[in-house]
Amino acid sequence: MKKVLHIVGARPNFMKVAPIHKAIATRGQLSQVLVHTGQHYDVKMSDVFFTDLGMPAPDIHLGIGSGSHAEQTARVMLELEKVFLSEKPDLVSVVGDVNSTLAAALVASKMGILISHVEAGLRSFDNRMPEEINRIVTDRIADLLLTPSPDADVNLQKEGAAASRIHFVGNVMIDSLLASKARADTLPTLKDLGLAPQGYAVCTLHRASNVDDAKILGGLISALAHVSTRLPIIFPVHPRTRKMLADKGLGGLLEKAPGLRLVEPMGYLEFLALTSQAKLILTDSGGLQEESTALGVPCLTLRENTERPITVEQGTNLVVGVDPERIREAATAILNGQGKKGRVPELWDGRAAERIADLYARVLGVDTGALRASA
Q1: pTM, rounded to two decimals
Q2: Cα–Cα dist 334/236, whole Å
Q3: Is the model's pLDDT at 88 over the cut of 60?
Q4: Domain enclosing residue 111, as ranges
Q5: Do 136 and 249 have their domain in common?
Q6: What is the pLDDT of residue 252?
Q7: 343 domain residue, yes or no
Q8: Which percentage of the chain shows pLDDT scores above 90?
Q9: Are 272 and 113 in contact (CB under 8 A)?
Q10: Nearest alpha-carbon partner for 299 in 324, 319, 276
Q11: CA–CA distance, 240 with 308 (Å, rounded to integer)
Q12: In terms of domains, do 245 and 302 share one?
């Protein structure tokens, strides 16, 4: 039986791999190996997601942990080479744009193993972002480029990728959202936090460009503090962000903003219960831009650019940068009923994983006659 080896390393990876793993398992014509690199090593940042998403425990856990970009990528590469030699996969499936994605693609390419990149073609056109480098290099060496939106196809075509490598399959992370929302809706998350639907906002911050610079981080906290005078802002704090808030001496600013409520990182279902009923989302996350569009919740992206322009062109997202005044103005407009309505983009329909499973079966020479036809 042909073998697909999946790589996960950070939280956004889990939401993308879970439905693909399930779709392949349902068909029963390919064997699978799930490798967790351990790039996110905090239980709340990683392990709980396997439970929430119904994923099996990883077959292999590398336990890489934190480090610089070079250290982390190198350690993942060293360990994955051993795994690939032992497991002999026919296809390595990587998702997203984290260091584990790049590391796996590099090792598989050097070893002549077929590579599929799920979420290919996204571009911020900002090479200062480590994730942008990961995307570009991974797409250059991957054999199969599986895109979530038509703009990604265009980007790859402009970069010279052959049309035969590009496959528009839709947004697989939305598969997880749609499959999980009913369960999330049953959780007492809002009650436990003393919140009412549409009566609060949600914020996440984790990007180095935002949290490592004291001036930028202070400005963002100032803007959030202002918005929190209108409604509570629930702020699940990434471990990196919590450390920087302390190191940059921003505790006093937080104390003056009782409406800005810092909480521990949440599991997938708990966080979905929170975001799905929010009045507003403020974030520097890529995935949350997509989820807010699928949920129909107005989103302000606290970055100067986005690799997901479809969330702006068709969805509920607005890129406002890091200027505190612009953030305050945009948030005020939304709270006054002027937020974008948006619509759900093409193929964000909960069936992307089925299309991916069918593609893998065809590429690996499995008889697809009995398989469900791709949408």
Answers
A1: 0.94
A2: 21
A3: yes
A4: 3-171+348-363
A5: no
A6: 87
A7: no
A8: 88
A9: no
A10: 319
A11: 24
A12: yes
